[in-house]
Amino acid sequence: MEKIRIDIPDPVNYILKKLNAAGHEAYAVGGCVRDALLGREPNDWDITTSALPSQVKEVFHRTIDTGIRHGTVTVLLREGQFEVTTYRIDGIYEDSRHPKEVTFTAKLTEDLRRRDFTINAMAYHPSVGTVDPYGGLRDLSEGVIRAVGVPAERFDEDALRIMRAVRFSAQLGFAIDPGTYLALRDFAPRLELISRERIRDELIKLITSPYPETFEVLYDTGITKVIFPRFDEMMACPQNRPSHKYNVGLHTLAVMQSVPPTVRLRLAALLHDSAKPEVRTVNDRGWDVFTGHHTAGAAFAEKWLREMRLDNATIADVCTLIRYHDFLFPKDEAGVRHAMNLVGDLFDDLLLLMKADSEAKSDEGKAWHLPVVEQIGTLYHAIKERGDCVDMKHLAVTGGDLIRLGINPGPGMGEVLNTLLDEVLDDPAKNDREYLLCEAAHLASEIHSKG
Q: Which among 83, 145, 276, 431 could bridge 424 via Cys, Cβ 3.0 to 4.6 Å?
């Protein structure tokens, strides 16, 4: 037992002492110990104990039976809620995710043996130090993700651990132990048994980590064949043209590394070229051509993100970024204003995606694309600084003004307002109330005469 000191919160210390005073063992356990040893702030503190759930409830007055069948009781303190779980041995995992039953045990080492990776199989008590029967401290110091015991057994029990191994590697910048890596390949097909929501959550943590390029491990181990087969097609899709130096998949990884770690930007980076394998043709010069890949990419992204159960707002944002990432507008002030109207509050993110996309090209590609991105950025910031109207809410006239002109609400009014906005996007000086009212009256007259 290592006498490394960890500063644990007062309420956690209080729970440990109360259980000890009642004659029970108790330790902080798992991810909180790992993070504290790494100098990171744990998100929460889990406690494991030799006390049975009924005994935990005798020690503390306010508790919730969170998962009492599996030994977990939530202790309610003024400072918050803390899960306390009895040492246990898991039974057979019938669904590759949850044990059919658990058996309580009096031995801490038996409880730690059932955990996924050595760095998560450590416990800590201030008077005892770190309990580390499976080499977690060694693997922390060496930067290794290693399954506890036999990797095949751990992944056979819970297939989600396959994703968790790669996710921890990405979050911590750790290598995956060779034996554990081989087991990832062997058990990757079992991810078919895991819900899309669970896989989505691990995937989001991976791609928003400090090392999103670790996504390539998912490809190398066959995991993408199960959760994102399009990426295998992207890795096999060349970009034989002077502006590119990578295949589509490697280019994608480079773009993910270059954008900030927000969910929508990292997803947009992952999916921005996802349609290239389906639209690829070769021109008469022997170059690969990807006509319309941005539109097809947005359509593919929407379909896949819905399958992964992403929320509607994130899906809409990601698809917008993909649809416009390839400079699909004139590179002048009017063109940028129209683009700002279409993209809305995402324009800053769009610039970041376009810049990252450009930087992941060949030197020749960068030499052409980066100056264009910089030009668009300069125009964008000038437009913002001047306060040009780029959306309906800043138009100098409203629907109420048009009603007072005798224009009834409905498609006709929408047509008039959109036409006025288009004029203002072309020339912001036209965002003048008197001018627009005059134009609106003229447009309404034309619509009436056509009707």
A: 431
Distance CA 319, CA 315 (A): 6
Beta-strand pair 80-86/72-77: antiparallel
Name the amino acid, one letter, at 55: Q
Condensed to tens digits (0 to 9), the pLDDT of residues 314-348 reads 999 999 999 999 887 889 999 999 999 999 999 99
Question: Does 451 score more than 60 pLDDT?
Answer: no
Backbone φ, ψ for residue 333 (5° rounding): -60, -40
Name the class of domain 10-135: alpha beta
**CATH of 230-386 among 1.10.10, 2.40.50, 1.10.3210, 3.40.50:** 1.10.3210
Answer for the pair 257, 271: CB distance below 8 angstroms, yes or no: no
pLDDT band at 123 (very low <50, low <70, confident <90, very high): very high
Q: Return d(Cα 45, Cα 23) in angstroms, integer.
A: 21
Q: Which fold has domain 144-222?
A: Hydrophobic Seed Protein (1.10.110)
DSSP-based three-state secondary structure for 50: coil
Q: How far apart (Å, rounded) are the C-alpha atoms in residues 106 and 185?
A: 35
Q: What percent of the chain shows pLDDT beyond 70?
A: 96
User: What per-residue confidence (pLDDT) applies to 97?
Assistant: 52
Task: Tell me the CA end-to-end span of the chain in Å, nearest whole number.
Answer: 87
Report how far residue 407's alpha carbon sits from residue 98's, in angstroms, rounded to the nearest whole number. Answer: 63
